Structures are given as C-alpha cells and as structure tokens.
Amino acid sequence: MNVRAAAAGDGTIHAGGDSARTATATGVVVLRLREFDLLAARIGEREARRLRDQAARRMRATVGGRGTMRRTGEGEFAALDLPPGTAATVAAEVSEAFSAPFSREGRNHYLRIAIGVAEGAAPVEHVLADAVLAGRAARAGEIRSYEPGLRSAQEREMALEMALRDAIVARSADLDIAYQPIFDVRARRLVGFEALARWTSPELGEVSPACFIPIAENAGLAPVLGERICELAAATSGEVNRARRMAGEAPLFMSINLSALQLAEPKLVAVMAAILDKTGGDPSHIRFELTESVLLSGRDGAITIIEGLRALGPAVTLDDFGTGYSSFSYLHELPVDGIKLGRSFIQQVPESRRATEVVGALIRLAHDLRLSVVAEGVETESTWRALQEFDCDYVQGLLFGAPLTKARILHPSGIAFPDIG
Fold first, then answer.
1. Buried b vs exposed e over 352-390: b needs ≥16 C-beta within 10 Å?
2. DSSP label of 71
3. d(CA 212, CA 210)
C-alpha cells in the first residue's frame, strides 16, 4: 500500500518520522473528503486544494497533540500514533468539527466526509492500512471501524469493478434498464417511467444497483455508465412513444438520472445532445433528474448546467430534494421544472409527524414556485392518502408497481393504477 506524506513546507500536514517503526498499541483515524474530484471539477483545482488545506488544518487542530498527521491520498488524511483507546473519541470530535462549513471568498462549502478508525498492537503502517480500508468503506457522514471482513469485501469489490468495467467497455447486454411506472395522482393514470440501471453478470449473477453504482463512482466509471444508461433509456422512450403516437395515445415521459460525476463533466450538455440526436426520439419526452450535487458549482454554475440541458428539449428536475447542500435557498433561482422527494422522507409518512410536516411543506413550496412534485418510494396506502391530501402531482413505488422490462413497457396498456382509495 502506498501511503505518502505531504510535501514538506506545504503548511498543512506533517508526518511523524518514527511512525513506521512503532509496534506498540496505537490508534489511527483516517478522514476522507468524499467527492473531492467532483468538488475540484466544480470549483477548480486550485480552489479545491485550498479547501483541502483548510480541512487539513481543521483536522490537525482537532487532533492537537494526541497524534501526528499524514496525508494518505489526494483528499485523505490520517491521525497516527493516537493513545490506545482514544481513536473512537478523536474520530467523533473530527466528525463534529467538520459539520461546520468552510468559508472561501464569501461562500460557504460543506465538505462531505467519511472516517475510518483502527486500533491495534501492530506496526503503525499496518494499523494505518486498516483505517484507510475502513474509511474507504464508510458512507458519507459515517465513522467506520476496521473489522477483518472488510478485507474480503474489498477483494469482492475489486472483482466486481473489473467485471463492471469489462461490461461497460464491451457495451454488453448484461447492463440493462428496468422501468418503474410513474402515475398522475389526480388523473390516476400512467404518465411515465423512471429508468433504473440493472446489471446481471454471467460470473457473479444479478448485482444490486446499491452495490455496483457506488463501485462505478469510486472507479471513475460513472460517467460512461451513465451515458450508456441514457442512451438505452432515450432509445426506449422513442420506441414507446412512436407506438403510442400511431395508436393515437398520449406520450409518456422517461426520467433519466444524471450522476454527480456526470454533472461534473465539462462536456455534459454536448454529450447529452449527441445521445438525444442519435436515439431519434422527441427530447420533450425526456426528464433529466439531477442530484443536488449540481449545486456544488454554486448558483451560477448550476443555472448554466440546467439551462444547457433544458435548451436541448428535456425537462429538468432535482432528485432527492431537501436531503443535501443548500437547495432550499437556491430553489427559487434555479430554472428547474420540478422536484422529486426521496424515499428517506416518503417512507416515514405519515408515521413520523415531523417527516410528514416536512413533506407537506416541500410540496406547498414547490407548488408556490409552479414546480411539479414526484414522490418516490410509496409503498403503503397510508402514505398514498397523505400525499393525496398534500396534492402531490406524481407518485412511484412498489404500491403502484415494481420496475418492468422493456418488453413490458412497449405495450403499457395493461399497466393500470392500483385499486386503492
């Protein structure tokens, strides 16, 4: 494993010279700046490095004299030589310290982090390797302690990454799409689908999107995977709506997710334009769903991206609205057509009073701004009734139908609204 110290004189981090020889009980905390590459693409390499240096100083100040510091990656830092039994406490303090924003030139930046923790009576480089592994397995905002099973999980992830890379390069039919129905709440009729990536590997079997999509993101494969999914979904949209036009039926829209890494691509709009032109469907039948990471570029950058995509013909919505960044303060300025409320909110309705009030408030806010609202993850009739009362526009979820194959949606006449109150 290549764990490198920061360059001397950078003013941010200093490595402990005797660390590699330490073989007594010790603790290590590793902090990762999640999506650092994405942040650099959004605000520029120089500004991202300055934020990284600020982050290093904040971590060093939090650790204080309890350990030594080392940079272990482009956006990754380690606190070494922590006294036995203190690593978990230090990790919690670091996590708390990073809940506050970083200010640069009048703008606040909230850095998404993940933390790995390891302790042991072994050479510090071994403990460090364990903490790095835990940090890279941690989700955003999570503190993850090393456990032996992480190493076998890493080996499986590497095998998955290699197989996924092969499937993408070969444009294999193993990568496909499932289409989840979306219904109009008031008319109680089918109005569209969301395209969901699926992968069935000949060697590994069916791989969950919750598994392979993060692997694609970590391996830098998300943009090319996203382009492939966009191409398949746009082509299917054209086929479905040509058939419906011949039958005298109204068109159905196709929602396509654009990942955070796709949004960071400077040529995103040109790439989407080429896909829409190649697939030949009506662009107005496409809806691009953007994650709130589009806001990492600031208001002006987000507006440029959204306006560029809308100029191609599709509608644009904000996915998982309200779960991150500064979407509330930006919403009235963004030229979007709607928002989607994620399952993290929806599946708590109506059991959680607070979640129910938040969902109702978000729907009212969107309608005041003349934006449509989609609620995803609707699985119970009680949730459905609450959304009816809030006058939500569209719904999707297992209550209304599981994701379907392309063959099924090419003949969607039998995809009916369920018999519910």
1. eeebbebbbebbebbeeeebbbbbbbbebeebbebbeeb
2. E
3. 6
Q: Which residue segment(s) compose the domain that 397 sits in?
A: 156-414
Looking at this protein, which amino acid is placed at residue 192?
G
The structure tokens listed for 291 are 């994650």
Question: Is there a single domain that holds both residue 197 and residue 49?
Answer: no
Q: Are 71 and 77 in contact (CB under 8 A)?
A: yes
Number of domains in the chain: 2
Average pLDDT, the chain: 88
pTM of the model: 0.77
- Domain membership flag for residue 18: no
- End-of-domain residue from the set 112, 147, 182: 147
CB 380 within 8 A of CB 386: no
Residue ranges of E strands in 44-174: 68-73, 76-82, 102-104, 107-109, 113-121, 143-145
Same domain, 108 and 250: no
Band (pLDDT 50/70/90 cuts) for residue 289 is very high
* Lookup: tokens for 36: 């650092």
Burial class (CB in 10 A: 0-12, 13-18, 19+), 140: exposed
